[in-house]
Amino acid sequence: MARIAGVPPQEANRFVRLAYKAAARRFGEVPEPFAVVAHHPRLLVASAVAETAAEKASTVLPANIREIAVYRVAWTVGCSWCVDFGTMLQRLDGLDIDRLKDIGDYATSPRYSDDERAAIAYADAMTATPIEVTDEQVQDLVDRFGHAGVVELSFQIGLENQRARTNSALGITDQGFSTDSCRVPWAVDEPVETAAVTGQDASNGR
C-alpha cells in the first residue's frame, strides 16, 4: 500500500473524476501515482500536461532505445510500479518484453543490440550519484543517435529518475499492469465500486 492513499473517486472533484475516466480508458485502470498526486490537483494537471507533451515530442529515438533506457532507470532505482507499467508500455509498443529478464546482464546478453547497450550504460551513468557521464560516452551516443537523439535520451532518463524516485518515496508499488490484473489504487480491505472509472482493458494504450 502507498504511504499516501490515492484519492477515491467519491472524494474527488469533478475534474479529477474526469481525469480518472480518461486514464482508465487508456490503461485499463487508474495508475496509482495519478491517484496519489490527485491530492494536489494543480500538480496533477501540471504532471499530465508535461507527460503528454514529453510523449508527443519524443519521436527522434527508436522506441526500443528510449524505452529500454527508461526501464533500466526504473529497475536501478527499484521502482516496482515503474517496472510494471514500463513493461506494459513496451508490450503495447510491440517490443520484445522477454529481453527484460536479462536487464541485469545487458552487457553480455545477446538479446540486446549495441545501441541498446550504449543507451543502458548512459542511463546507469546518469542515474549514478554523482553522475558518471563522460565526454567520450556522449560523443559515442551522438555518433549513434545524433544531437537531438542524445537530448531526447537524456531528457527521458532524467524524467524517469523523477518518476521512479517520487513513486518509491511515496511507497507506490507494482499495480499489475504488466499482467493485466490491476489492483484498484484506492482499495484497502473491501472492494470499492469502480465501474465509473474502470476501462475495458489496456489495449487502448499508446
Automatic annotation (TrEMBL):
Listed InterPro entries: AhpD-like, CMD-like
Keyword tRNA-binding in record: no
A GO term, aspect molecular function: peroxiredoxin activity
Keywords, comma-separated and alphabetical: Oxidoreductase, Peroxidase
The keyword Oxidoreductase appears for this protein: yes
Domain Carboxymuconolactone decarboxylase-like: 58-124
PANTHER family noted in UniProt: 4-CARBOXYMUCONOLACTONE DECARBOXYLASE FAMILY PROTEIN (AFU_ORTHOLOGUE AFUA_6G11590), CYTOPLASMIC PROTEIN
Protein name stated in the entry: Alkylhydroperoxidase AhpD family core domain-containing protein
Organism, scientific name: Rhodococcus triatomae
